[in-house]
Amino acid sequence: MTDCIFCKIVRGEIPADKVYEDEYILIFRDIQPAAPTHLLCIPKAHIASAAEIDDGNVDLVGRVFVQLAVVAKDLGLGRGFRIVTNCGEDGGQTVGHLHFHLLGGRQLIWPPG
Ligand code: AMP
Hints:
Blueprint: H1 5-10, E1 18-21, E2 25-29, E3 37-43, H2 58-74, E4 81-84, H3 88-91, E5 100-104
Bound molecules: adenosine monophosphate.
């Protein structure tokens, strides 16, 4: 999508601190980290939010979780971590391209605000 900030990162039009990339997904560091480790994992294809996950793109979502588990291990998050996706206005979503936050490196509080 032309004006989507994460699509621009996928296309290399704006920089990102990339941690992992393949044909389907990209993992990069969040620009405003909320934890010592704060990554974002996105499908390269534009999907607006978790509300648009369906049978046609569920494989992509599976790849997100597989690779986040690998990266979490590689980054030493053996004590645990959190994967979260914010969906829509009430969910606190600010970027309209499906993304999963990986947070770790400190004790995380639940429930969040
Ligand atoms: P959400 O509020 O769940 O939609 O999350 C969007 C996240 O994207 C926020 O944590 C932002 O800090 C992050 N973000 C926005 N722009 C960028 C960028 N150019 N590079 C990395 N992270 C970004």
